[in-house]
Amino acid sequence: MAIMNAQEIMELIPNRYPICYIDYVDELVPEEKITATKNVTINESFFRGHFPNNPVMPGVLIIETLAQAASILILKSPHFYKKTAYLGAIHKARFRQMVRPGDVLKLNVVMKKVRSSMGIVETQALVNDKIACNAELVFIVAEREEKI
Hints:
It is an enzyme of class 4 (lyase). The protein is an alpha+beta fold. It has helices at about 5-10, 60-75; strands at about 25-30, 35-40, 85-95, 105-115, 120-125, 130-145. It has a single domain (about 5-140), classed as Roll (Thiol Ester Dehydrase, Chain A), CATH 3.10.129.10. It has two helices and six strands. It has a six-stranded antiparallel beta sheet, covered by helices on one side. Strand 4 (about 105-115) and strand 5 (about 120-125) form a beta hairpin. It starts with 5 loop residues before the first helix and ends in a 5-residue tail after the last strand. About 25% of the residues are buried.
């Protein structure tokens, strides 16, 4: 059962279609960990060019999906609520298997360190309980830009 749906996610993070990749949040322990889900479908716009006869989710978009899950975890912290989390660095990224249409990407993020305006998380993207990608991500948190 989802504890956050797509609409609730979009109220927290600034990402919108076509680059809002989290479908729902399965589990959330603020300031500790999150598990979220991305259902990978053939309708994703990036599959038209990556690759037409062999559709594979680009690694950079797997990292982006992990970063969005991490943003939810970070921004659910009372300290960072109503702010924006920007990806500051990617460390130790490893791609271990391809992600294809029909896969369900489970995103696990664990908070490792928090400072006044930044956070470090360990991430894993899994398909069928097998690691597709893992990385350490560094976030910079800033005030949210107001709409004009």
